[in-house]
């Protein structure tokens, strides 16, 4: 599937579809189930030019990511959020977006990329492992009390 995907900037009209990408996932249950927190975050990302979509040939949203340029200590691009649409999981949309994330970072001259993943999210940890990310350390209760976040880096 990934060969057919194209990268596009996020747009206001597609924010609802972006929210739906995460509905029912473990991060939805832990972080976004209450009210419009995810929508607020995606809206902010859009305003800052940080929201990116993986679109299929018929223009449906296969995946979404938020990239903060130099968001890690002013050094490395930071992946704040990524998700594949439930119907697209396991078909390469996540790998496609990670490839685009790393391409943008290289073009900006970053030596590494960075992200955090929650301790409960075994699927995403396996995903990042398969893409060559290594664990710098773990921050207890980084975002929400009781949930640790692993800080992952990739050498580009
Ligand atoms: C994590 C997530 C983005 C992966 O996206 P995806 O489109 O399903 O992943 P891909 O199909 O591109 O898989 C890429 C590689 O990761 C591996 N992978 C994917 N999910 C995995 C899992 N649950 N466990 C282990 N490895 C996994 C695949 O085997 C694949 O490797 P391969 O190409 O060598 O076979 C997706 O599962 C998702 O949206 N999860 C819900 C939201 C979330 O938790 N986001 C991450 C935290 S912000």
Features:
alpha+beta, about 30% strand, 7 strands, Aminopeptidase, binds coenzyme A, single chain
Could you describe the 3D structure shown?
The chain is an alpha+beta fold. It has a domain at 2-110: Aminopeptidase, CATH 3.40.630. 32% of the residues lie in helices and 32% in strands. It contains five helices and seven strands, in the order βαααβββαβαββ. It has helices at 15-22, 26-32, 37-47, 93-107, 122-130, and strands at residues 6-9, 51-55, 61-72, 76-84, 112-118, 134-139, 149-155. The protein has a seven-stranded mixed beta sheet. The chain is globular and about 40 Å long. 30% of the residues are buried. The model has no long low-confidence stretch (mean pLDDT 96). The structure holds coenzyme A. Coenzyme A binds at residues 22, 25, 27, 81-84, 89-95, 117, 121, 123-124, 126-127, 130. Coenzyme A is lined by residues 22, 25, 27, 81-84, 89-95, 117, 121, 123-124, 126-127, 130.
């Amino acid at each position: 599937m990934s060969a057919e995907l194209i990268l596009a900037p996020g747009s206001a009209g597609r924010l609802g579809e972006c929210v739906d990408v995460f509905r029912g996932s473990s991060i939805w249950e832990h972080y976004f189930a209450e009210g419009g927190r995810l929508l607020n975050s995606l809206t902010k990302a859009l305003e800052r030019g940080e929201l990116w979509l993986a679109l299929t040939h018929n223009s449906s949203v296969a995946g979404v990511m938020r990239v903060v340029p130099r968001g890690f200590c002013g050094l490395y691009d930071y992946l704040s959020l990524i998700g594949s649409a439930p119907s697209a999981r396991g078909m390469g949309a996540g790998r496609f977006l990670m490839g685009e994330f790393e391409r943008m970072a290289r073009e900006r001259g970053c030596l590494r990329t960075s992200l955090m993943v929650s301790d409960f999210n075994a699927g995403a940890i396996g995903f990042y492992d398969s893409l060559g990310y290594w664990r710098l350390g773990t921050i207890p209760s980084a975002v929400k009390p009781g949930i640790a976040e692993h800080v992952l880096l990739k050498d580009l």
